[in-house]
Design brief:
Length: 383
């Protein structure tokens, strides 16, 4: 059973600051009594003065995801501190291997720590837009405002890093002309399609779509990689997402599709509305479909927070093995991963924020006792 690590951290923060109430203390006591390892974690987080003080700051700070631009700009140092402690505490509480917890101790590996000066920064808000005429626009370098006009549609870039399609001339629409929005490893972006639908695309992803849907009976887009969709409702024109292995049809809904070629399954997670996969399987909100290479589809309850972690700024691991964790890290930090000998048998549960430098993100490996070294932009996992 997955534990609510964020809540446990908050309760410990309350305890450290002397603000825990009776109900909170009872809940914390119950958690401690569940397992002797919980007692060890509690002792560690409440005995180290430095960590204890930082946890108090973390607890006091407003950690909502939707910070205003003012808060993002002027409260960045405090937020960075909160993120650092939240990640550390999540690792303390969550990293497991072989059924045992690994927590902060003096025995943490001293292996191949690379200098901070050579650290790799996290991914960024960037993408490349390819117009129907073949012109490519690097959006990270492009100015804000109007970027292009195509067949009655004006394409603009906003100051918050969003691509917007807006129909200006209904008489000049040509829906057959496709645009492509693509990210490399280490990039992510958001686009508002001409029908008003919003799409967030993850790293190493390509999304192809018409510059206008107005003359089309279906709103069809093609996806290679991972994206989260909030589709505008239009009963007369279904919204269709094609990937290498599936076709998904919706009228108006919120969902996430993970269709990376190096993953064993195409995973569709539904938040709102309904979707039909390959003209057969119907998903309901809160469900997840896993499509294997042989065409079999398995439907199960979804871990929504895990599925949308990338969109909301973090990796959330839920009993993930080492290769699954490293695939996510490699895409976001634009690095390569190699394995020497047998792949270590490690299982990961917990949250790591995506705005951390690589050295901090890799703490999750060290606390799970996974040995590795770094050569340039390649992480080599050792047996």
């Amino acid at each position: 059973m997955k534990q609510d690590y964020d809540k446990i951290i908050t309760l410990i923060g309350n305890y450290n600051s002397g603000k825990i109430d009776e109900a909170g203390w009872k809940e914390l006591e119950a958690w401690i009594a569940l397992d002797q390892n919980n007692q060890l974690v509690f002792d560690r987080l409440t005995s180290d003065e430095k960590l204890r003080a930082e946890l108090e700051i973390m607890h006091e700070f407003n950690a909502e995801d939707n910070f205003s631009e003012f808060e993002r700009t002027h409260m960045a140092p405090v937020k960075r501190l909160w993120i650092r402690i939240a990640v550390a505490a999540s690792i303390v509480l969550a990293c497991t291997m072989g059924g045992y917890y690994y927590f902060f101790s003096e025995k943490i590996n001293t292996q191949s720590d690379f200098a901070v000066t050579n650290d790799i920064v996290p991914g960024k808000n960037a993408a490349t837009l390819t117009l129907a005429n073949g012109k490519k626009i690097a959006l990270a370098d492009a100015h804000n405002g109007e970027l292009a006009k195509e067949a009655g549609v004006v394409i603009t870039k906003t100051s918050d890093g969003q691509l917007i399609y807006e129909i200006k001339d209904q008489g000049d629409l040509a829906g057959s002309k496709n645009n492509t929005l693509s990210t490399t490893r280490g990039e992510t972006y958001r686009v508002r399609l001409p029908d008003g639908s919003l799409v967030w695309i993850n790293a190493a992803t390509t999304l192809s779509y018409p510059a206008s849907f107005a003359s089309l009976k279906k709103r069809t887009v093609e996806l290679n990689g991972e994206a989260y969709f909030e589709v505008s409702k239009d009963k007369t024109r279904p919204f269709v997402v094609k990937t290498a292995k599936q076709q998904l049809v919706v009228l108006g809904t919120h969902f996430n599709i993970n269709s990376y070629g190096d993953e064993e399954q195409t995973v569709t997670t539904l938040l709102e509305g309904s979707v039909k996969i390959n003209e057969g399987t119907l998903l309901k909100p809160g469900e997840q479909a896993q499509l294997s290479d042989n065409g079999n589809i398995t439907v199960s309850p979804a871990n929504i927070e895990e599925a949308l972690g990338w969109k909301n700024g973090f990796f959330l691991f839920d009993k993930d093995d080492l290769p699954a964790v490293m695939r996510q890290i490699s895409r976001w930090y634009n690095i390569n991963v190699k394995y020497e000998g047998e792949i270590p048998k490690a299982s990961f549960d917990g949250k790591v924020y995506r705005n951390l430098n690589l050295s901090k993100a890799l703490e999750v490996l060290k606390y799970a006792n996974v040995k590795f070294r770094i050569e340039g932009k390649t992480i080599i996992i050792m047996p």
